[in-house]
Amino acid sequence: MNDAPAHDLTDKVVLVTGATGGIGRVLTPMLVAARAKVVLVSRQHDRLEDLAASVGVPDTHCLLKDTDLRDPAQAREMVADVITCFGGIDVVVNLIGNWAPGKVADTSDEVWAEQLGSNLYTVFHVLREAVPHMTEGGVIVNAGNAEPVEGKGGQLAYAVAKGGVHTLTRSLALELKPRGIRVNAILPRNVDTPGNRALQPDADPSGWPSAEEVAQVIMLLISPGAGVVSGALVPVRGKS
Ligand SMILES: NC(=O)c1ccc[n+]([C@@H]2O[C@H](COP(=O)([O-])OP(=O)(O)OC[C@H]3O[C@@H](n4cnc5c(N)ncnc54)[C@H](OP(=O)(O)O)[C@@H]3O)[C@@H](O)[C@H]2O)c1
């Protein structure tokens, strides 16, 4: 009997930013089950250690990097450490996010900078460093959000940042097509995570996609089954 996982990522190095978030901590065990070597990135080392311990990933297959990816220097150092440790990068999944509401006249310089910094600059900083080390067959998955761009106003800085992620995804897919590297984005909306339940205590979460369902879409985009898909902005909306 063949007991290989559906997506066999043996010897693939998968870098996940925002790994300790609602989606990242569900995606990580899927990657480990698929035998990937994982690089888990967020700012808080204790949360990264808790995640690695809960998944039971061997030290030889896991690198934990507490890194603030709003800072380009930290992004550079983090990717250099990954190359020293594992020798290359096959997959990058960008799951850092931060949401703040605000109409145009109410958006302070601080909120504007923080929203672009967390949601867009983190993606640019890590990909600028990682892409030169990626080879044919490489995959990048970003996290956008159609809702603030096409659905509901009043979250201007977040909308601009996520719109930037959408454009970065499509433009980079064109740039990297000759190198055989695919770039796509998932566009979730109200994923059923502890964070969203806390933010929206009166909402009905029954139509929201689970974090598992969103992570499965990421696994699908990583897999050879999606080998002809690049430049796609994939809505992941559950039943809502
Ligand atoms: N959940 C949803 O409903 C939803 C909907 C649409 C789009 N999305 C997008 O999907 C992605 C994942 O969502 P999620 O719900 O899993 O997010 P989340 O639970 O808020 O997790 C965010 C993660 O990013 C890390 N992080 C934040 N700022 C960072 C920084 N400057 N440098 C390094 N790490 C940083 C956090 O850890 P530390 O705080 O320890 O650094 C955490 O691991 C995000 O891009 C989000 O915008 C989510």
How would you describe this structure to a colleague?
The structure is a single chain. With 240 residues, this protein is α/β, with parallel strands linked by helices. The chain has one domain: 3-Layer(aba) Sandwich (Rossmann fold), CATH 3.40.50. It is 42% helix and 15% strand. The protein has helices spanning 24-33, 45-55, 72-86, 109-130, 147-151, 156-176, 194-199, 211-222; strands spanning 13-17, 37-42, 62-66, 91-94, 139-143, 182-188, 233-236. A seven-stranded parallel beta sheet has the order 3-2-1-4-5-6-7, sandwiched between helices. Strand 2 (37-42), helix 2 and strand 3 (62-66) form a beta-alpha-beta unit. The radius of gyration is 17 Å and the shape is globular. Bound molecules: NADP nicotinamide-adenine-dinucleotide phosphate (NAP).
Average pLDDT, to the nearest integer?
A: 95
As residue ranges, the low-confidence spans are none
Helix content: 40-55%
CATH structural fold name: Rossmann fold
Structural class: alpha/beta
Heterogens: NADP nicotinamide-adenine-dinucleotide phosphate
Q: Can you tell me the CATH superfamily?
A: NAD(P)-binding Rossmann-like Domain
Q: How many runs of DSSP E, i.e. beta strands?
A: 7
- What's the CATH first level? Alpha Beta
- Label the CATH architecture: 3-Layer(aba) Sandwich
Main sheet specs: 7 strands, parallel
Distance between the termini: 39 Å
Task: Summarize the helix and strand pattern as letters.
Answer: EHEHEHEHEHHEHHE
Strand proportion, as a percent range, falls in 15-25%
Number of helices: 8
Going across the major beta sheet, what is the strand order?
Answer: 3-2-1-4-5-6-7
Radius of gyration: 17 Å
Categorize the overall geometry: globular
Please indicate the count of domains: 1
